[in-house]
Amino acid sequence: MKMTTIPISEVAWVNPRYSNSSSIVGAVVSFLPMAGLSEHGFIVSAEERNIVEVNQGYTYFEEGDVLVAKITPCLENGKAAVVENLPHKIGFGSTEFHVLRPKESVTARYLFYMIWNPFFRHEASRNMTGSAGQKRVPADFFSRFTIPLPSLSEQKRITSILDKADAVRQQHMTATELASDLLASLTRRAIRGEL
Known about the structure:
By secondary structure, the protein is an alpha+beta fold. About 35% of the residues lie in helices and about 20% in strands.
């Protein structure tokens, strides 16, 4: 059975705008610089800023949105994440993010996995515009790039499997980092004659 594919722009709003009408002077929001977005699919850290400092000139996002870097090499390196568990429900961040806000037909985690994979990154990098070192994925790429769109229940089933696989990958990365740290520590001790 062949699955229906659909452009991302039909299942998600691309770079939704922020309405200044709801700004509250003195309100604090989450702020996410590019360094706060991991290449491993999650938000590493977010800052807090006053809304009047960031509501113009930065990229707006909300809890449940999907962020993806649009500039090289951040896109190719996998900087993307679902906005989850921030202290504030709205935020602003680097101008080098694209924001995808899922519509009713797609879950945020499913959409994330559809853009956080080597095939998407390869196709997106092939469609970048601009000069070397400053190349970016244009927003209209999301109207051309299609993804399979199963039912919501099937998306949740697929996402559950991918979440489990990603948890194993993260555990492996942690174990590898700990082993590297242990090796470095033992090497230093051996050099100092402490073993």
